[in-house]
């Protein structure tokens, strides 16, 4: 079954539902835009290109290529040029891209489509496993989250397949030279770690993808168990947490921490034994979460901001 039919079967790009495609100009987003136009129809598709202004002439060439592609496909193009914010470069770029995409999709009451592929999923799982302990590291990216959809990922389309699709359709794409270097962790995983895993077993990527899929299904069961254990409460008795045992207790503790902070708290599970041994008092869990025990009841809040020294 070809790429188009596999994406069609995901039902993530239904006819009549507006969609904003995040378009970088690379092979994956070029393939996704073309597929979206075929399935949704050009009038229902918008493209969003984010020019971060970090690569000089190359960035300008990417923008021109996106404009030419959209003109060819009959798609309206919006270009977003965010102002550089302090802090982590990749985090800023990600927030700028998804923030602009979310706003554009909301204005149309539609969806935002990102061109992540099965190849990206494998890399993501490996990178998260290396950097963050726990089963969630193995879940990878979800095919859907709110307005965000990842049709190529849901259809298990690989990077090689998007290149083949573009070539068969006569669609040119841009190559980002930084993807071939070793400056970023994803590039190192793509060009170093994955070839090593394929040498161990040619099925390595397929096995990683299948593992992530199975664990996402199991995660739904575990999340439901945690919700039933708490019964909608935002607190739990320390004695009860201890009775649950480490496996379920850690899940409950992490849930409370993430509910309090609104962000992932993978380090919280490391403090489970300390939390269940805690009398009245507080304990920082990491990732901005703090455990508070009063009268034998555990609540989790945000870690207070530090007061500057005078």
User: Beta-sheet strand percentage?
Assistant: 5-15%
CATH topology of the largest domain: Rossmann fold
What integer value in Å does the Rg equal? 22 Å
**How does the overall form come out from the CA principal axes?**
elongated
Number of domains: 2
Tell me what the CATH architecture of the largest domain is. 3-Layer(aba) Sandwich
* Helix-residue proportion: 40-55%
Q: How many helices in DSSP terms?
A: 11
Low-pLDDT parts are none
H/E series: HEHEHEHEHEEHHHHEHHEEE
Under CATH, the homologous superfamily of the largest domain reads HUPs
Which tags fit this structure?
310 residues; 11 helices; Uridine Diphospho-n-acetylenolpyruvylglucosamine Reductase, domain 3; four-stranded antiparallel sheet; 10 strands; alpha/beta; Rossmann fold
Write structural notes for this entry.
There is one protein chain. With about 300 residues, this protein is α/β, with parallel strands linked by helices. It folds into 2 domains: about 5-200, HUPs (Rossmann fold); about 235-310, 2-Layer Sandwich (Uridine Diphospho-n-acetylenolpyruvylglucosamine Reductase, domain 3), CATH 3.30.465. It has helices spanning about 5-10, 25-40, 55-75, 90-110, 120-130, 150-155, 160-170, 185-200, 205-230, 240-260, 270-275, and strands at about 20, 45-50, 75-80, 110-115, 145, 150, 235, 280-285, 290-295, 295-300. It has a 6-stranded mixed sheet, with helices on both faces. It has a 4-stranded antiparallel sheet with strand order 7-10-9-8. A hairpin with a 2-residue loop joins strand 5 (about 145) and strand 6. Helix 9 crosses helix 10 (about 240-260). The termini are far apart. The mean pLDDT is about 90.
């Amino acid at each position: 079954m070809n790429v188009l039919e596999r994406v069609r079967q995901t039902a993530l790009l239904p006819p009549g539902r507006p969609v904003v495609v995040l378009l970088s100009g690379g092979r994956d987003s070029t393939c996704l835009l073309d597929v979206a136009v075929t399935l949704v129809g050009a009038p229902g598709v918008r493209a969003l290109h984010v020019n971060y202004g970090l690569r000089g002439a190359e960035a300008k060439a990417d923008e021109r290529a996106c404009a030419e592609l959209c003109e060819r496909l009959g798609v309206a193009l919006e270009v977003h040029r965010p102002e550089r914010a302090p802090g982590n470069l990749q985090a800023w770029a990600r927030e700028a891209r998804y923030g602009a995409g979310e706003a554009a999709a909301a204005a149309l009451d539609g969806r935002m489509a990102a061109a992540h592929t099965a190849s990206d999923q494998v890399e993501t799982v490996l990178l998260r496993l290396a950097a963050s302990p726990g089963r969630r590291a193995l879940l990878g990216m979800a095919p859907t989250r709110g307005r965000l959809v990842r049709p190529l990922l849901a259809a298990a389309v690989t990077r090689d397949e998007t290149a083949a699709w573009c070539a068969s359709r006569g669609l040119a794409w841009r190559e980002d030279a930084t993807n071939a270097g070793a400056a970023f962790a994803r590039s190192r995983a793509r060009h170093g770690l994955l070839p090593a895993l394929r040498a161990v077993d040619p099925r390595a990527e397929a096995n990683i993808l299948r593992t992530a899929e199975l664990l996402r299904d199991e995660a739904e069961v575990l999340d439901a168990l945690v919700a039933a254990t708490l019964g909608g409460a935002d607190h739990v008795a320390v004695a009860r947490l201890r009775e649950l045992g480490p496996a379920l207790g850690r899940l409950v503790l992490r849930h409370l921490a993430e509910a309090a902070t609104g962000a992932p708290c993978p380090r919280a599970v490391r403090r489970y034994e300390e939390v269940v041994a805690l009398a009245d008092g507080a304990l920082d869990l990491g990732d901005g979460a703090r455990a508070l025990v009063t009268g034998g009841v555990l609540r989790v809040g945000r870690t207070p901001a530090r007061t500057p020294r005078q």
